[in-house]
């Protein structure tokens, strides 16, 4: 919860940073808040359509929401941008 608050402050300070939105989404996933994580990833991808982290986090969030097709698309897009076995 403390980390989420810090990320939220950081996003308010620098709302043009896709990395901050993607990092906050990772925090939200750890808190089991996948819908909020998807919203942050959407915001990150609007700012930077090549954000591998945002695609990967959104893919994990879609998996938790049981939207497996969207999860696969996002995870594949993230892998294409930043290959990680």
Describe this structure in words.
There is one protein chain. The chain is mostly helical. The protein is built from 5 helices and no strands. It has helices at 2-13, 18-30, 34-47, 52-64, 68-81. Helix 3 (34-47) runs antiparallel to helix 4 and helix 4 (52-64) packs antiparallel against helix 5. It is globular. The model has no long low-confidence stretch (mean pLDDT 96).
Number of strands: 0
Strand content: under 5%
Q: How does the helix and strand content classify structurally?
A: mainly alpha
Helix content: over 70%
Order of helices and strands: HHHHH
Radius of gyration: 12 Å
The whole-number mean of residue pLDDT values reads 96
Number of helices: 5
Rounded to the nearest angstrom, the distance between the terminal CA atoms is 30 Å
Shape: globular
Major beta-sheet overview:
none
Unreliable residue stretches: none
Describe the structure concisely:
It is built from five helices and no strands. With about 80 residues, the chain is mainly alpha-helical.
Which key features would you list for this structure?
5 helices, globular, about 80 residues
List strands and helices in order, with pairings.
Elements: H1 2-13, H2 18-30, H3 34-47, H4 52-64, H5 68-81
Helix pairs in contact: 1-2, 2-3, 2-4, 3-4, 4-5
